[in-house]
Amino acid sequence: EQQFSHAADFYQAILDLFPNSGLAPQALIRIGMLKSQLRQPHEAIASLRTLISKIDSGTWRQTNSRIVAAPNTRRSVANARRSAPNARTSSSSIVLWLRAYTLIGDIYLEQLYDVQTALSIYQEARSKISAQPANARIVFAQLPDLDLKIAESYRLMGEYDEADAVLNSMQARYKDDSVIARIAKLRGDFCF
């Protein structure tokens, strides 16, 4: 536990010393993960939401395969409040954004025991990722995981018909054996 705390302090130092460096987004993700491990869910969520906010507002953009701070630009409040990466957002930024959203949902589900909020977060991430350009294959590879989390959330809430509808939709879309096996496993979990 002390190692996690020291690691979180290390990543915080990176943010404090180099807030605009290409390391800052990964530092925020790592802080969120470490705070989650330390059972500090609210601090973890705050770190992850900061990352999401910076990506959404365009503070960070991709340059030469790494994320860096974007120059200070004048953006309207409406643009800054848009809560999704847009078509100009890099794949790396979108993956970080999705990872942060997923971790927040997982924290609500596994630590705060708030299945409804977790479901809302997973659904929001799913709808925003679905709006990405089709050439963002790395992003679409994450959709089965989100769909399974949505189905699992419905199952935990006792909404088996909704969970089954998500799984049926997945079975029609995904032909990968590992996804089909995970669908079957989740259907088996319905019996418990």
Structure overview:
The protein is mainly α. Helix content is 69%, strand content 4%. It contains 10 helices and 2 strands; from the N terminus they run H-H-H-E-E-H-H-H-H-H-H-H. It has helices at residues 2-17, 24-37, 41-56, 77-81, 91-110, 115-130, 137-140, 143-156, 160-173, 177-189, and strands at residues 60-63, 66-69. Strands 1-2 form a two-stranded antiparallel sheet. A hairpin with a 2-residue loop joins strand 1 and strand 2 (66-69). Helix 2 packs parallel to helix 5 and helix 8 packs antiparallel against helix 9 (160-173). The chain is globular. The two termini are 33 Å apart.
Blueprint (SSEs and pairs):
Blueprint (H helix, E strand, L loop, with lengths): L1 H16 L6 H14 L3 H16 L3 E4 L2 E4 L7 H5 L9 H20 L4 H16 L6 H4 L2 H14 L3 H14 L3 H13 L3
Antiparallel strand pairs: 1-2
